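Feature request, filed as a ticket because there's no other form

It would be nice if the structure record came with a short human-readable summary line next to the tokens. Right now we just get the raw output. Example of a typical job, pasted below so the devs can see what we mean:
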Amino acid sequence: MDPLDFLEPADLLSFFHSRKTEMSCMENPQIFLNQLRDHNLIPEDKYKTIRMKSKDNMRKAVYEILDWLEREKSKHIPLFWKCVFKDVIISQYPTMKLLHNSLMDGSFHFDPKLPERVESEDSDEKGSLKVSDGEEKETKSTRKKRKLRSGSTCSDSDVEQPGPSAKQTPGQKKKAKKIQFSSPKKGEIDEIWTWPLYKTQLPVTCGNVEGTLIRDKLAKGEKCILVDKQRFTPSEFEKFAGKESSRNWKMSIRCKGTTLGKLIKEGHLKAAVYKRRMKLAKKSLLASYSVTDEDDSEDEESSLEAQPLTEEATGGEEREEQSEPAEMSPDHYRSTFKVTCGALTGTLYKSRFGSGKCGKSIRTEMSWLSPEEFVNISLNQRDASWRKDILYDGKPLSVLLETSVLVIHSLLCKCKCCKPKPEDLENQKNDDECYICKSEGEEDLVVCDNCPRSFHQNCHLPHLDDAILGDDSLWMCTFCVFKANEKYRYPDEQRTEAVMSCQISPYMLECQYLLLYLCSADEEQIFATNPRQYLEQYSSIIRTPMWLDKISDKLQQKEYKTVGKFVSDVQLIFTNSAMYNRDNQEFLDLGKHLKQLFDREFQKAFNIQD
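Raw output as currently delivered:
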């Protein structure tokens, strides 16, 4: 679908209205005019006449054509933008490229608001006529309504109205009606389903979720509600909004506070009667199959496709529409994805993803990046396509987009990813969860000013005082302090025996780093807590239990005297794991993996070369 389809026709018309002069000043506009002619947007006589103009008159003539297009063919303005935003036009005219970017990134919303447009028709015989008092009141009313609507997510567009009314003299020619940026008539303000602008689609809500209802698809029994480029049937939309328990989309989905059921009953909407069928649903990996009512999904090849029967044809019978959800791949249930681009690796977080530009969704070792930034850093290319250059599981990221595992947000989306406030931009620089325990928790997170990591006060080593939370000075975590000093601490190679016998106080930084590294690597927090609390008969098999939190407390309380004592407790965790999990290969392998990580990092931290 073209991204322009997500913009309201009234927004496209308003944008056109304020950019006519810019477009009329383009150098050598012949190719531009040819494109309009090819799409039947200007009459042949006007096209032939304008070719004979001089340079100055050409600009005037182009403006007159654009003005004529706004007055006489305003409903074709969306087609105008689609045809002039073709690559062949954008490559020829820098002005069109700038206008294209302004529409695509939503920056046009920040343009200064225009004053109300006042139309006054000049009489051929009796000069100009004054605007009626009624229209002055209507203009003031329009201005007030716009203020009230300015804060909405999807701003309601104004309805086209005729120009100022005036009595015609017998000798006066009747002029074409012009578009007036004004409000609907009194009594129709809230009934937007009667506005010409919403003839094909309506803004709808279910709970706190907003979408766009496509009228003709509802009448055909197809997926008719659009949310962030994803289509839903009404019941799917109800489920997506968290209102599945109501099981009555005609009451839970509303347009401007009015239920769809009421609009259907009053004849403002036509809705197909959706068929239902039984489907086997698997409750869990261990549970047996049970029969449940599921929704019929839209399938052009399916013999069960819903018939376009209206409410009137079925005597107003209301049957709950159900659709069968498409079969989900395992990736649909993932929240993170390991991605690569060239030699650069990172983790993409679905919750942070907005689009290529919006949302710093890819976490690398040193920063959070948007997909475009990730590609630019890896390939040093500004024009690289993140959809094909970023790989997940050996396949382009576009595969996740095509299967709706990832969904690109609408151009008009106002979430924290797409329209972040200054504090949101600052928060995007760091993790949303603790780097150690992998949870947000109820405590405040302390963020590192040198890397993207965040920590709970008692998860970090050393523990963080309350004073740090209110301190505006820069703070570096133990990971960053260790990395910054690593190359200066051990210029000479060390031996394991010598390191193990050293007093721990000069090497506290290394020990704290190693334990934090190990805790972070234990992503499932399997070795973090006391195993006796959740493993039966553990004490009968393991005489000396040990876990990461206990070692952390002992480090914080400075109970260790030598490096060897610290290392001995860490190795005890792995020894206990190997003994207890002899018959559990999965947990046995996890313990072995963590042991390998610790041994390798221990040698690097102390520059050991045995």
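Something like this underneath would help us a lot:
The chain has 24 helices and 20 strands.
The two ends are 62 Å apart (CA to CA).
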